[in-house]
Amino acid sequence: MEIENASRKYIGASHRVLYVTLAVVLLSMIPGIFISGLKPLAYIATLIYIAGERKRRGHSWEELGVKLQGFKQDLQANWHLILIVAIVLQLPIPLIARAYWPDLLKHISDRIPLLNSSSIGLLILVLIVIPFFEELIYRGLLQQRLAWYLNGFVAVAVASFIFGLQHFTSGSPAILAVDMAGIFIDGMFYGWIFSRCNNVFVSWSAHTAADILGVALLFLV
Asked: CA 63 → CA 32, 59, 102, 134, distances in Å?
């Protein structure tokens, strides 16, 4: 896995920017780790931080990887990675769990917002909107800032680990280990894609496709 380092445009930036970013992301996640219904607070708090920082420092959305220019070319350049994470990696766990480990399947189902909702339209909306917020926060903001100071691979790994923590739901150690490992691996691929193009819309496309197929498999199995 060859991962590019972030642009050194901000090489002179204070480490304080990274420390504040880490603190905002991690502290905002704490309520949701203990009470699953509070997980959205992590997105809200971090998005407020992003909006406030943009206004204060004059950052553009493009600096966070939010750019439509070049999207088609970036999508074409990363189609093979998108195919792997959106399809290949989503198949094994639901199918194996259905046959041999139903408790794992139930654990995964329980942590997905609105999975049991009667509104399929609302569920699909959630599967589109939440991945965008996650890509903006964990790739466009966190991974990119980690990569100012860390090796590209390490930056992706740290951001993916924190991304996994956001999905933490209590359960048996074995189930948690498998579930968190799957989320971490998915996050590594999203981060790899983002590092190659610095475009949130491309990693979001992979993330959304993976989530939709994953949920579809939960319904089918």
From this structure: 28, 7, 43, 16
